[in-house]
Amino acid sequence: MKILGIETSCDETGVCIIETENDSVGSKIKILGNQLYSQIAIHAQYGGVYPMMAKREHALNLTPQLEKCLEEAGMKKDSRFMIRDSRKERIKEILARENDLSEDLIELIEKIEKPDIDAIAVTNGPGLEPALWVGICFAKALSEAWNIPIIPVNHMEGHVVVAMLQRECGILNSECKETNIQHPTFNIQSPNYPVIALLISGGHTQLVLSKENQKYEIIGSTRDDAIGEAFDKVARILGLPYPGGPQISKLAEKDRLEHPHDSASGPRKSAFPLPRPMIHSHDLNFSFSGIKTAVLYTVQKITLNSSSQKDESGEHFSEKNVLAKLTDSIKQEIAREFEDAVVEVIIKKTQQAVEQYGAQTIIIGGGVSANKKIRSDFAKLAEDIHVELMIPEFSASTDNAFMIAVAGYLNILSGKKPETDFKANGNLSL
Length: 430
Hints:
Blueprint: E1 2-7, E2 12-20, E3 28-38, H1 40-44, H2 51-72, H3 85-94, H4 101-109, E4 119-125, H5 129-146, E5 150-154, H6 155-162, E6 165-167, E7 185-188, E8 195-200, E9 205-212, E10 215-221, H7 227-237, H8 244-258, H9 289-307, H10 319-324, H11 328-357, E11 361-365, H12 372-385, E12 388-390, H13 401-413
Parallel strand pairs: 1-4, 4-5, 8-11, 11-12
Antiparallel strand pairs: 1-2, 2-3, 3-7, 6-7, 8-9, 9-10
Helix pairs in contact: 2-4, 2-5, 3-5, 4-5, 6-13, 7-8, 7-9, 7-11, 8-11, 11-12
């Protein structure tokens, strides 16, 4: 079976084609083609993702990404396939709100043979609805042109299932050293149930209980900011560029290398202590808005103290000089304390969930799962409490069409039927 995956939930335009060896859970999955266009450089100048701008970029890039993916998969074969006028009008109608996407897609379809694809898997939520709609309409237009069924996929399920994949090179949940492999093959590893999945991204922080394959129950979630959102907001407070998560982690890691906490005199305490929100709440929910505010107050206190001082000429520091007092070393220590705090909370809550439900496996998914400290601390937790840990490769941690194609495949295996009349749902739940 060959499946085309399409992902446009936020600011990544992803197109992927996979081939499965056997139609069973233990089957092998080969990536035939995988293309991902990131809009980070575009949104970075605004400090965050603008939904309508993301929508426009998806419309501009979906057809070129599909063409590259087909070429990579060896499926781009020249032809003079002419679409009937009635079908062409239907495609234009489907893509009426997507700028020039219909013209670009029709031009591509009419110059290549219909590819050997059995199904299309597309993200229909959660995410930014304007962005989701582009991918959905693109999938429906392809379905109309090529008569291929569509499977709508929950984006968060994609983050769960991609953690269950193991490269054939034998390295579980890490980057394969054989990076020159053109079409890598993966095995789907069935976890030991019950499973606790921690889903952490820019828009989500959830603890999910799964007692059997593809059955999910949300048992904990954030009451305000998602963890990735908190990372980005703290980065802005510290004057770091977007996206903020990797910037915070980079500074925190540098501070740990330069100033190890443990020494002969005992653990080193941070000069800028931050709270561990809801760590003793006795439930499985999270809150990250308060710690963001605590960072803001810490920075304000530092700058206010600086502004009350005088420079060598006897003049009060200007605003520019005040901000300059937020030195690199101070930023490093605040970043480290912030990262330590939020990781301590998610570790504690996840362990609590494992003990409460007798889980045998922990799955970590979502873009924030690429964080090095989260990976190392959860590896230690899993070892300490004797549970299995499944976490995706770094390259598959962030939004991508590979995970959508795999989730679509597993949905087909579980008996899910193709759909035509489905919509984008920005708040879609597992």
